[in-house]
Give the backbone structure.
Amino acid sequence: MSLDSARGVEPPVQLRQALRELGAFAAKLSWTTQSSDVQSALLRVLADSLSVMIAGGRLAESARLRQRLPHSGGSATVFGDDRTRGILDAAWLNGVSLVSLELDEGNKRVRGHATAHVLPAVLALAESRRTSGEELATAFLVGHEVASRFGRAVVLHEGVHPHGNWGVTGAAAASARITGLDAATIAASIDIAGALALVTPFRVATAGMAVRNAWIGHANVAGIQAAALAQEGEPLAGIAQESLGQLLGVLDVEELTADLGDDLAMRGGYFKRHASCSYTHPPADAALAVYAERGRVEPEAVEFIEVQSHHLATALRGCDWPTRMAAMFSIPYVVSVALRTGECGPQSFDEVNRSDERIARLAAKITVSLDRELDAKLPAHRAARLRVHWVGGQETLVEVENPIGDADFHPLSDSTLLDKSASLLGDHDDAALVHQLCEEMLHCNDVATILGQLRSCASKGGRRAG
């Protein structure tokens, strides 16, 4: 009897075959043969992500983190700094910056953020290797799709955060592709990534611990390392069956390769307009609708407020916000700051607003509960219902079926994304330049030249993100 059989585990034959198929897909994919809508979607994701990454790198806490960490010299850009660093340092630091403001691209069907797990590794490797824009775009698309496939295939156990686990597979696939590895070695890289997944308690985020951002830095670094390890020629083990499929969640292997190559996830994600966890966005949109009708809401005008949503959102009910992270993962805070200020941008989560006694008093009147009717609409809909009970007996009810920014319902236009970049970078001309350079990067012969210009733009400073 084999050890797998003794433990009651089916040998991962199906998973090993899926890994081979993913490796073959990743090795063959070509950026130049993609449809115009896929190419357009990738450009939009790239420009938005770099704007968010630059803004995150400009945060005071990001600057302090860079100062505290020892770093290696190298040729890879770290946004927020005018110096270049080693590949692993750049991938880690830019990964942290990309998610520090909770404004990075995501996908409701993937149940997480593929881009954040992949793009910093791709940028660091591409710049150091002085690849073409076509190679960068191909690797990014490969990694994004592989990560998204695992995100769809893995249902994490309750209490596990989707950063730093299934997304490592995408970073590994992208790193292997941009390094020029063959299909078998790309498959091995993805396999090894399954052994580099972190245990990521969701309570880290709700408690306000910035280490959550480091999980994304780890994922990008681990992907690069997986691609290096894979070149030793180790056999496929299908290790994700145990790590992602048992210890961290449940893995549906068939989802990894079903209709592989069709309807790439790059086209179906969402862009975020609120600097908070995506589960807070529908309640935030509802609160902003109330603000638009009534103006600033005073706590004395409210008896209590009910928020009902799906099960993914109901854990975000904290009323203590010692850090930006804690506030970004609190529905009571997000709803209160929206009702009080009419926005949920990065500055809404700074110390001034977190210390506002009137926001705290309003938040104390908010309850968050599960509505099974709304829960049943997952994953196609992430709905929320906001009911304000006013002093004097009146009620205001707002129900949001899907957040603004959802590609299926309320996609953000190119002009809106440019405005988002401008608000983050503090200057519309800088935002336009970032978007222009991203487009140029996809068609250039040496991405290092373009990334050098982006680094210079980012280092100018501008208005801080918060």
The chain has two domains: 3-267, 278-400. Residues 36-58 form the longest helix (23 residues). The chain has 22 helices and eight strands.
